[in-house]
């Protein structure tokens, strides 16, 4: 059975929304915030959640970091509400509808549970991708929607994943044939050391590793032959 929010859940969230509304009205600093000025905080808070998870932080710390991210969402929703666009409830309703729509291996169209569920991750991915394509049938580029400001390494991995899932003809390394690739280490620790060594070598030669990889990702995306 799908869990439903309790009155305590709703009260806590309503209290937070009310607190932010009051701060926007009565605190000059909070009242001066804009979507644009909040961007740096949203990125910073998201990275702090990542740091907590990777450091195996205790639950109290992780809960606090997640609260900081939630604050950013509530603030952005409040700014939109003030200009008469949408509010937090609309944000929650939209993402809930999307999760139901894109997870038809779990939910029926009305949000109730299916009678049976897929047995493999591969089947889930196929159904998820099919649901996304149905939402935007005009979208033909598998790389559309990858944030342009995503860090280069994350953009590279996401681009290769999108290409593979779209059935594009790429080799296992995802690199041009004339590029010599050293053996890939068997562990993430060793891989991290290799990547750090590459960055160090680039630095010694006056090269910007982030910019170089970002350019390589753009070239990879542009040179892919889309299936007809």
Please give a structural write-up.
By secondary structure, the chain is mainly α. The protein folds into two domains: 12-102, MazG-like (Helix Hairpins), CATH 1.10.287; 155-223, no CATH class. 63% of the residues lie in helices and 0% in strands. The chain contains nine helices and no strands. Helix 7 packs parallel to helix 9 (209-223). The longest helix has 24 residues, at 59-82. The mean pLDDT is 88. It holds the Pfam family MazG. Residues 34-107 form the NTP pyrophosphohydrolase MazG-like domain. One of its GO terms (biological process) is methylation.
Q: What's the gist of this structure?
A:
The chain is mainly α. It has nine helices and no strands.
* CATH architectural grouping of the largest domain: Orthogonal Bundle
How many extended strands?
A: 0
Number of domains: 2
The level 1 CATH classification of the largest domain is Mainly Alpha
Poorly predicted segments: none
Mean pLDDT: 88
Instruction: Indicate the percent of residues in helices.
Output: 55-70%
Largest sheet: none
The CATH fourth-level homologous superfamily of the largest domain: MazG-like
Q: What is CATH's topology name of the largest domain?
A: Helix Hairpins
Structural class: mainly alpha
The Rg value, from CA coordinates, equals 22 Å
The first-to-last residue Cα distance is 42 Å
Number of helices: 9
Pfam family, one: MazG
Keywords: Methyltransferase, Transferase
InterPro entries: MazG-like_dom, NTP-PPase_MazG-like_N, NTP_PyrPHydrolase_MazG
Domain NTP pyrophosphohydrolase MazG-like: 34-107
């Amino acid at each position: 059975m799908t869990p439903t929010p309790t009155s305590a859940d709703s009260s806590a969230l309503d209290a937070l929304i009310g607190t932010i509304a009051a701060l926007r009205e009565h605190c000059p600093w909070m009242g001066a915030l804009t979507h644009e000025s909040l961007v740096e905080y949203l990125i910073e808070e998201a990275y702090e959640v990542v740091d907590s998870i990777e450091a195996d932080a205790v639950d109290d710390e992780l809960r606090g970091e997640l609260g900081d991210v939630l604050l950013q969402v509530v603030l952005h929703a409040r700014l939109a509400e003030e200009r008469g666009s949408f509010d937090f409830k609309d944000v929650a309703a939209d993402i809930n509808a999307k999760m139901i729509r894109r997870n038809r291996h779990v939910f029926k169209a009305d949000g109730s549970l299916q009678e049976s569920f897929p047995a493999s991750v591969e089947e889930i991915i196929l159904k998820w991708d099919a649901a996304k394509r149905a939402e935007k049938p005009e979208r033909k580029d598998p790389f559309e929607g990858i944030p342009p400001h995503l860090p280069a390494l994350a953009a590279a991995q996401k681009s290769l994943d999108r290409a593979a899932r779209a059935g594009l003809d790429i080799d296992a390394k995802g690199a041009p044939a004339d590029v010599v690739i050293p053996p890939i280490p068997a562990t993430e620790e060793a891989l991290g050391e290799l990547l750090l060594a590459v960055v160090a070598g680039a630095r010694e030669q006056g090269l910007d590793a982030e910019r170089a990889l970002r350019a390589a990702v753009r070239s990879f995306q542009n040179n892919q032959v889309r299936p007809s």
